Every structure is written in structure tokens, then in C-alpha cells.
Amino acid sequence: MFNDHPDDARSEQQLQSSGWLVNCQEGLFLHIKPDASIQHAQFVVLSTFRWSPVLGNPVRQQSMPRHLGLEMWSNLQEIGWTSCSPPES
Description:
This protein starts with 7 loop residues before the first helix and ends in a 5-residue tail after the last strand. The protein is built from two helices and five strands. The protein is 25% helix and 33% strand. The chain is globular. Strand 1 (19-23) and strand 2 (28-34) form a beta hairpin. It has a single domain (8-84), classed as Nuclear Transport Factor 2, Chain: A. By secondary structure, it is of the alpha+beta class. The protein has a five-stranded antiparallel beta sheet.
């Protein structure tokens, strides 16, 4: 389920579709994906989920400019978040 930390090129590629990070210590998943409500794909949506057997509704959801989403992705990995496969719904 868990992968090695991606480099910047791989982070960029994941943000063009969708990506997941997990923080085992905090018991959280983060899903980042392009904001489908905006045509230019210059924004991403960040959804935070609690770690549970079944993925429920996000506990937090926000939209932000794509470049800030990429920066956040990299910063979270630097502090211990790990890229992962999507959890089961």
C-alpha cells in the first residue's frame, strides 16, 4: 500500500490526475486532485480523511491554486507523510 517518496517530477504527474498521502502517526489520509469545477485545472481540491476501515466523508476539504497544492504535497512528504494507493471506499 505504501510507496517510496516520489521526486518532484512524479509529484507533478500525480497532481495532474490524483494523488494520496497518508500519515500513520496522525491516522489521516490526504487526497489531492484537480478541481473539476474549474475548466483550466489551475486549482486542486485537498480532502482530508480519518484513517478507518471504510473511507467516509472528508473531515476537511479545500480548494487551492495548483502550484500551492504541489508545494504542500512536497512539504508534507518532508515532514513524514507518505504517498500511498487510494484506500478502499
